[in-house]
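Lab meeting, item 3. Inverse folding demo.
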């Protein structure tokens, strides 16, 4: 996964993580926040590597679908740009 994609996914996770299942949150937190490998996550959670991969795939799809429908990340980006413009006008 490219670093830009991982940053975007991390932002979506920060915004929508409470809409994921507990298991998906746990796996995604380890994957994104702590940068654990698939094997490390599987070992720490006592689940198979395939279960970790399935969880990541499903969570990623859900996060992207939520953003597509709700656009919170996009709105935050726009607000941040507007704030920066206002700061630049002041200074």
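The presenter then showed the designed sequence:
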């Amino acid at each position: 996964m490219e670093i830009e994609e991982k940053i975007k996914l991390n932002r979506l996770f920060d915004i929508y993580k409470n809409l994921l299942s507990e298991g998906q949150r746990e796996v995604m937190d380890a994957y994104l926040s702590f940068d654990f490998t698939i094997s490390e996550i599987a070992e720490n959670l006592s689940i198979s590597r395939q279960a970790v991969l399935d969880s990541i795939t499903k969570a990623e799809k859900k996060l992207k679908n939520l953003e597509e429908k709700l656009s919170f990340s996009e709105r935050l980006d726009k607000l941040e740009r507007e704030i920066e413009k206002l700061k630049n006008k002041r200074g």
